[in-house]
Fold DUF177 domain-containing protein.
Amino acid sequence: MKLQVEEALKEAGKSFPFSFECPAAELGEVEDLPWKDATVVVDGAYWFDGNHMVVQGTIQTSGKYTCSRCLSPVSVDRKETLSEVYGTEAELPEDVLPYNGEYIDLTETIRETLILSEPMRVLCRPDCKGLCPQCGANLNDGPCSCPTDKIDPRLEVLAQLLRSKEKR
């Protein structure tokens, strides 16, 4: 996923659009990620600002995740922002990435962007009820047959205190 940028170097400020798609496997080392079998679509533009090459756009893909509450499979569409600055100087500023002056290879940048923006928690729906902590039933399918009046053993002492006050 390379951008030929020689033409942009000749015309400072002129924006050059780009668009491509590829299988996620072409990004390298994505075997353990939920979007490993998906297609990655990248759209954007690049331009030379007089000192550096600026690349901005979006990265889109989808992945098969697991709901954090009920463990059901969930398909998630992802849309991430691509925004990088590239330079050729020997001493680059901290926020500028190196390139060879002819082309910019976006492969590693795209992979890193998707990995770093990986969702921390995925829910099958906003009101997911999760699993019963006693029997493991999916509570989204309906209530389970576990007793709901069971008291946490750590709080049993407080329940006894309440019962003794009620008897008085």
Observations:
- Residues 156-167 form the longest helix (12 residues).
- The radius of gyration is 26 Å.
- The mean pLDDT is 87.
- The first strand starts at residue 2 and ends at 4.
